[in-house]
Design goal:
Largest sheet: 6 strands, antiparallel
Number of helices: 6
Strand content: 25-35%
CATH class of the largest domain: Alpha Beta
Shape: elongated
Order of helices and strands: HHEEEHHEEEHEEEEH
Strand order of the largest sheet: 3-2-1-6-5-4
Number of strands: 10
Radius of gyration: 19 Å
Distance between the termini: 8 Å
CATH architecture of the largest domain: 2-Layer Sandwich
């Protein structure tokens, strides 16, 4: 059995630190949103959320590609659906083209109609609603906005006993690679980052692709506080 190296543990710690930082931002955002209370006007709520999330989308080499608040049905003056969600600048996108500034998610676009009809059943909303805890959805292909391989991080926003919605952020796998690959490449053996169901997120073994199902392996190092593990890359496991 191959034992985890110090570099493997450092990789796991780096992933934990990356997502913990995002969740800290979400925590501060939800506190501000909760203060608006159930009488929030749509314009005031949207202005608040925009002021909270847009600075993170404009950072140099930002990790986030989208962020905002999704209100519970009828929280915003009887509306069934209200998304205060912004997308960061996009280098290229088959739906939105090239953008140089953050843009508001346009719910009037026909592409969103079926998706939003029952958004409470979607994982990024339903899990925080039922567990009252933060949650990571993905990785999955975002066909609606970025057409990229992403994670969605969400946590519930509560006022008293009522959940008024979820605050969240989208992170692309490509940007996780940019942030973490130098550390992964410094390891003695090819490594892979896998999610809770053993799907590969990133790998330093060229033959192992994101989305591939990795075999269980005894040398895994858990990423504290988030549902990921760092393992010896699957192609390398067969040679151990």
């Amino acid at each position: 059995m191959t034992h985890p190296s110090s570099t493997t543990e450092q990789c796991a710690a780096a992933m934990s630190e990356l997502f913990d930082g995002i969740f800290r931002d979400l925590e501060s955002w939800r506190e501000e949103i909760a203060r608006t209370g159930p009488s929030a006007r749509p314009s005031a709520l949207d202005a608040l959320v925009e002021a909270l999330v847009v600075p993170s989308l404009l950072l140099p080499n930002p990790v986030l590609i989208g962020a905002g608040f999704i209100a519970a049905p009828e929280f915003v003056h009887g509306r069934d659906v209200h998304f205060s969600w912004w997308l960061g600048p996009l280098e290229s996108n088959p739906l939105l083209g090239i953008t140089t500034v953050p843009t508001r998610l346009d719910l009037g676009a026909r592409v969103y109609t079926d998706y939003l009809r029952d958004f409470r059943a979607l994982e990024w909303y339903s899990i925080p609603e039922s567990t009252h805890q933060r949650h990571v959805t993905g990785p999955y292909v975002d066909h609606l906005c970025t057409c990229d391989y992403i994670f969605t991080l969400t946590m519930p926003v509560r006022v008293g006993d009522d959940m008024i919605g979820v605050v969240g952020a989208d992170v692309s796998v490509r940007r996780i690679e940019t942030a973490l690959l130098p550390l992964f490449l410094a390891a003695d053996h090819p490594l892979a980052l896998v999610n809770a169901v053993d799907r590969v997120v990133i790998s330093t073994e060229p033959t192992v692709q994101a989305g591939q199902l990795a075999p269980r392996h005894g040398g895994a190092v858990a990423c504290s506080g988030v549902p990921f593990r760092v393992i010896l890359s699957p192609a390398s496991q067969s040679r151990v």
